[in-house]
Amino acid sequence: MEWKEMGETCILENFDMALVAPKSKSIRINGKGTCIRLENIYWILLQRMACVYGVSVNRLIATLDKEVQFSVGEVSNFTSLLRAIAVTESLSGEALLQRAPTLCTRQARFAEEV
Hints:
single chain; alpha+beta; Ribbon-helix-helix fold; 52% helix
């Protein structure tokens, strides 16, 4: 039996599954080469944040790493922290989105890659 036959709403009906596909990126964080693997949706949110702050995603991640090091020290799972920061910034999004350009060139280019 399908969801609609049961009178339920299908939450995933318009969901783009490409958003949950993982993507690895090699970046330099404060002089050290590393690879970060996140789902596409988090790369999109980080790109949006980077546009707001006028920096590249690499620079944003390096800055977040420095801030974490100075404020709490080492974290056990940096990618989980990036996910949490991206979601938190997105949820407080009205302020973030008001500061964001309607469509920045870097964001458009990144969205095409996803």
